[in-house]
UniProtKB/TrEMBL annotation:
Signal peptide coordinates: 1-17
Gene3D superfamilies: TolB, C-terminal domain
Alphabetical UniProt keywords: Signal
Name under which the protein is recorded: WD40 repeat protein
Chain ranges passing through the membrane: none
SUPFAM superfamilies (alphabetical): DPP6 N-terminal domain-like
InterPro entries, per the entry: 6-blade_b-propeller_TolB-like
Length: 487
């Protein structure tokens, strides 16, 4: 049964929507094996065609929040986001930030009064109000959900009495009585590995009732960056946590879902909307978050500045980005992104959509287009990933299942997986090495895991796997129903 309250913010739902290509596998630094998220958990797989092996770690996402993994540079472990489910509030509150716990308890005490006030102000018999979670005046549904469940467990009779006065009260009460009430806690954790198996228990680095997503380990192997969704602000914070658990930093606020570490491992590049969360007009920033010794900078306290304080970001470019923005820091210091070239004033009624790939230097002084030929790149240029050496990128199109490899400096493009008219891609490619790319493609009428190797072509590496493992990696388009003829 559908839960009354979801654990995701609107921002994260948009970023992780099932209609977009998602990251599902991540190769280890030496390319010997890949972490892979399948329907029932996290697996380890290689390119030899052998069946993937399930790892003994509970992600707890239940299809609501996809996990993302990031390897330690030496391949000895990885960081992943997951969801822990607590059946008792007393157990959940001790592992989340004290401020969140206090806010949930404050809201829980007022839930019955909020419903009483709503009943007094509305005509329950005639107004179509939707479900109770739609009209309670609390913007953050994550904290509201926890507060509602806490109120129901501590003030059940009072809450049910007030709910019965609402238009859908009886249905809500029935739903609550049938539903298994849990308090989901989002977690970023470090997982160590040895001989292809987990080595000890995962070490928590950050926990929250709000979504914690997209962990990326610094190349220095000392810190991890991730997004912390703030639903009440319709935005996200970019945070950094030391892998030893010693410190945590709120690096930037009001950013999009696009960020990456620079090769030196001390700075982050990210994009932030200029005019609100839905704006395609975005600035690309570079922000130094680690000091020379690899420890975290701190936000300034008081009026006296300190040399080790977090400085303001350096703006590298002003861009008109696609709906799914992406920035990639290349090994040579340049930053790769997609943007709509814009010149004002524009003739006629507006701009023709013609997204293009660009690189900008680390100082923001030189902006260079990737010289691809017209028609080589998809119109919805939002999903691409660079090779480890920064010389090539793989581009996937969400409206079709085509995959291309592009040389960044020359713009030379090679289609390594052709279009199949009735299919569209739902899986991001991943580089195994600078000359090898794995991706989802159609083979014998079904989605498969494929390996492209420069100079050798493409081969399938999942022929012996159960078809269910890769079934969702591509999606067959729904056929349009013919219009009914008039009598």
């Amino acid at each position: 049964m559908k839960k009354l309250f979801t654990a995701l913010s609107a921002l994260v739902v948009l970023a992780l929507a099932g209609c977009l290509p998602e990251e599902r596998f991540w190769w280890s630094p030496d390319g010997s094996h890949a972490l892979m998220q399948l329907e029932d958990g996290l697996y380890l797989a290689g390119a030899d065609g052998a069946a993937p092996v399930k790892l003994d770690i509970k992600l707890g996402n239940e299809g609501e929040l996809a996990s993302r993994a990031s390897w330690l540079p030496d391949g000895s472990g990885f960081v992943v986001n997951r969801v822990l489910a607590f059946s008792k509030w007393e157990d959940a509150k001790v592992v989340i930030p004290p401020g969140e716990a206090a806010e949930v308890e404050r809201l829980a005490r007022g839930i019955p009064l909020l419903i009483t006030a709503w009943n007094a102000a509305h005509d329950q018999k005639t107004e179509n109000t939707g479900d109770v979670d739609d009209w309670l005046p609390v913007k953050n549904r994550v904290l509201l959900g926890a507060a509602f469940y806490l109120a129901y467990t501590t003030q059940r009779e009072t809450l049910e009495a007030e709910l019965r006065k609402t238009p859908k009260g009886e249905a809500t009460i029935e739903h609550l009585r049938e539903e298994e009430m849990v308090f989901p806690v989002q977690e970023i954790c470090l997982v160590k590995m040895k001989d292809g198996k987990l080595d000890g228990e995962p070490r928590p680095l950050a926990r929250s009732l709000r979504a914690l997503v997209f962990p990326k380990i610094s190349p220095t192997a000392k810190a991890v960056a991730f997004l912390h969704a703030m639903e009440e602000e319709d935005a996200a914070k970019l945070e950094v946590a030391m892998l030893d658990g010693s410190a945590r930093l709120e690096a930037a606020h009001q950013i999009s879902a696009a960020f990456d570490w620079t090769t030196d491992g001390h700075s982050l590049v990210y994009s932030a909307p200029v005019m609100g969360k839905d704006s395609n007009l975005q600035r690309i920033h570079r922000l130094e978050v680690l000091k020379a010794d690899g420890t975290l900078r701190k936000r300034s306290e008081g009026d006296v500045a300190h040399p080790d304080d977090l400085k303001g970001p350096v703006t590298l470019a002003l861009t008109l980005m696609p709906t799914s923005p992406r920035v990639i820091a290349l090994p040579d210091g340049r930053v790769l992104f997609a943007s709509q070239p814009v010149t004002f004033p524009a003739k006629g009624e507006g701009l023709e959509v013609a997204l293009q790939l660009f690189t900008v230097t680390a100082d923001g002084k030189t902006l260079t287009p990737v010289p691809t030929a017209p028609g080589d790149l998809p119109a919805n240029l939002g999903w691409f990933t660079a090779s480890p050496d920064g010389k090539k990128l793989a581009v996937v199109e969400s409206d079709t299942d085509a995959v291309a490899v592009v040389e960044i400096d020359s713009g030379k493009t090679e289609i390594i997986s052709p279009v199949h008219a009735s299919w569209q891609c739902r899986t991001m490619p991943a580089w195994k090495s600078s000359t090898e790319l794995t991706f989802a493609a159609l083979k014998d009428g079904a989605p498969k895991w494929m390996l492209w190797k420069q100079g050798e072509g493409v081969r399938c590496i999942s022929d012996s796997w159960p078809s269910s493992a890769t079934a969702r990696w591509l999606e067959e388009k729904k056929k349009e129903q013919p219009a009914e003829k008039s009598p």
